[in-house]
Amino acid sequence: MKISIGNDHAGVDYKQLIQEKLEALGHTVTNYGTNNEDSVDYPDFVHPVAEDVENKKADLGIIICGSGNGANMTANKHQGVRSALCWTEEIAKLAREHNDANILSIPARFVSKDLATEMTTTFVTTGFEGGRHQRRVDKIPAKKHC
Predict the structure, then answer these.
(1) Tens digits of residue pLDDT in 80-118
(2) For residues 109 and 48, what is the distance between their CA atoms, to the nearest angstrom?
(3) Where are the domains of the chain?
(4) Which end of the chain is less crowded, N or C, counting CB atoms within 10 A of the terminal residue's CB?
């Protein structure tokens, strides 16, 4: 599977662990994140991940910032992106099963590195259930009203 990953200064250590784990599982990872803890602007590292998912250059994306909120908001501006802010493994699983989420947003300042790695593994190994959930996912994109 092709996975794009991006992070700001709050997620450097998380990104490194997650990238190593994903590559050990045989995934191809494209790293758009910063590699040091100097303050940066998270949208600069999230937009490329969302663009890869939007343009089908990546199957899934992982984004990491301090709260996960800014990264999540940024990613969800892209058409076809369903980014989910997750803080438990169960939420990551449900985001894939019920919402067909294609980007996992991790709040580095609120979850441990172990939990972030577990959520990522769950996210990439869980499939979308479809069925009644597909109907709901189909209603997510905003429609313009005349």
Answers:
(1) 999 999 999 999 999 999 999 999 999 999 999 999 999
(2) 22
(3) 2-138
(4) C
Average pLDDT over residues 59-79: 97
Q: Which CATH number fits domain 2-138: 3.90.230.10, 3.40.1400.10, 3.90.950.20, 3.30.70.360?
A: 3.40.1400.10
Q: Is the pLDDT of residue 145 over 90?
A: no
Distance CA 73, CA 85 (A): 9
| H runs (alpha helix) in the chain | 12-24, 43-54, 69-75, 89-99, 113-125, 132-138
Active site residues: 65, 98
Q: How far is CA 80 from CA 47, 89, 129, in A?
A: 13, 23, 18
Q: What is the pLDDT of residue 143?
A: 80
Instruction: Taking residues 19-44, report their average pLDDT.
Output: 97
Choose among 75, 18, 22, 82: nearest CA to 49: 75
Q: How far apart are the C-alpha atoms of 35 and 146, rounded to whole Å?
A: 46
Report residue 126 as tokens. 């869980």
pTM: 0.95
